[in-house]
Amino acid sequence: MTELPARYVGHDEAWREWRTALSSERMHHAWLLTGPEGIGKGGFARKAALELVGKGEGRQPEPSAHPDILVLDHLPSNDEEARKKADGKPFQVKRNITVEQIRTMQQRLTTRATLGANRAVIIDPADDLEKAGVNALLKSLEEPPAGTHFLLVSHRPGRLLPTVRSRCRILRFPALPDEAIDGLLREQAPDVSFDARKAAIAAAQGSPGVALAFARQSLGKLHELMERIVRQGDRDFTLRGMLADEMGARPSREKLLGALDLARAALTGALDGAGRRQQLLIIEAHGAMARLSAEAPTYNFDPGLLVMEIGGLLASAAVPTEAVEAR
């Protein structure tokens, strides 16, 4: 995901709420940062953690290097990928944040903070915790060590256990309007074509990080094909073949996840002007696409089969309006 500044459009209310709590006598020990993926929640969490542990002190190191900020995110998938990370190269990560990471963090919490009275634990994203990791984390949320504060970044809070959500104060990050996304793309990705920008805005659904990632992957043609499948169907599988060609034989994980978001956006856009029965078909296809999107990050799907599944769901929603109204 494309990195964004820690302070971004739409974060003003979140900062106001955080800093009001920070200046109060009783700071809640656990915070759940929710909103669309790519909105900047992770960057906010890291800057907020620095404010928490660095109150009254001078210049602080980066969050990843601060002794009183523990960041739990996806580790490299193996030793080779770890070496790539150490060399500053792109690397593959594990599918989940592991229970071992939670237990290592809990061992650290048995000692006192190094530079001050407070310590911050960031889990980004908490949605990807292993089940055993969630259960282990609950123990720390129920009985937090003195001065320890948790910041859980969540793109899909509904995937978290109610017992986790109930122990956190919610900090919401709203989606941005299309005009703001368009302005961001013009500023930070000025070489992106009009079609690619249009696809990025449609897929982003208010998330600037998603928009930038999509625009820089040049997914405009993919979006166009998806819209055609929803609009006219694909009885002879020609468009689905073109869709597979456009994705490529070995698409990256980011491109596959991006394609799923694009497909959901194509279905949402098709609702306008659709007949009543077609709207029901679109809603049914969108629900199936959402379930597929939830499974994709954790299951080892064959890329070719996944692309055909996406195309099939898009085609299932493509019922001509005339035929629908005649039934």
From TrEMBL:
Top-level class of the enzyme under EC nomenclature: transferase
UniProt cross-references to Pfam families, sorted A to Z: DNA_pol3_delta2 (PF13177)
EC number: 2.7.7.7
Superkingdom: Bacteria
Biological-process GO terms, alphabetical: DNA-templated DNA replication
Coiled coil location: none
Transmembrane segments: none
Alphabetically ordered keywords of this record: Nucleotidyltransferase, Transferase
InterPro entries documented for this protein: DNA_Rep/Repair_Clamp_Loader, P-loop_NTPase
GO molecular function, one term: DNA-directed DNA polymerase activity
Keyword Transferase: yes
GO cellular component: DNA polymerase III complex
UniProt protein name: DNA polymerase-3 subunit delta
Species lineage: Bacteria, Pseudomonadati, Pseudomonadota, Alphaproteobacteria, Sphingomonadales
